[in-house]
Amino acid sequence: MAKIDLVLIEDDIKTCNEYKNLIPYYGQLHLSGSTSDADEAIEMIKKRPPTAIVLDLELHKGKGNGLSFLKELNKLNLPKKPFILVVTNNISTITHSAARNLGADFVITKNQNDYSVQMVLNFLLTFDEIGVPLDNQQTDTSVSKLKFGIDYIAKMQDQINKELDQIGISPKLKGRQYLRDAIELTCNKKRSNLCAEIGKAYSKTDASVERAMQTAINHAWRNTDIETLEKNYTAYINPRKGVPTVTEFIYYYADKVKRVI
Hints:
Strand content: 5-15%
Shape: elongated
Radius of gyration: 20 Å
Distance between the termini: 23 Å
Helix content: 40-55%
Strand order of the largest sheet: 2-1-3-4-5
Largest sheet: 5 strands, parallel
Order of helices and strands: EHEHEHEHEHHHHHHH
């Protein structure tokens, strides 16, 4: 599978560092450039057109803005249009429509509950792995695949949340978000060190991530009635432990979610 060559246009230094720390854990992703300057981004893309662009619309700490960037990008007439994923704090439907009219393929708002850098990278990776062309040309087939990809990701995330709700893992538990991310990552591809990957995203140690996830699992097995657990979690559990390990839990639900959707 070819690498996804990614350009990041983002003015928040902490967010940029999160991308730079996380991307090496994704074998298919390569960060070819990062800037907070819309004009510099255009020059960067002229020299080496990427597969995908992650674009922050508001570049308050940089130069220019996302809409002006999209206008200039259209003037380049690139042989292959990069997949453009907009990430923004702006919730205006008018602004989102303007971005789409200028060529943005998808918009993710940063104020949604499950937003994270990892979620953005998972989104791009999932599109590539299910066959959606990230250098999207607007044929009937590619548009159909794009719509399918968006639906697939939404269904996967909804199903993961539904499964965790069913066994009593509350959104209030710190480990819930880590488990949700770990299951989603594993739905895409099994990882060798999930705790390290998730820890990078949340600036936590491997051990604290694993501990929080195990605590969330233990909470469910202590507080949810046995009939509900046996109905929803049918994998073997070591009787000496009485609860699934973190790895067993994640792999079970990744397989289950993929079968359901």
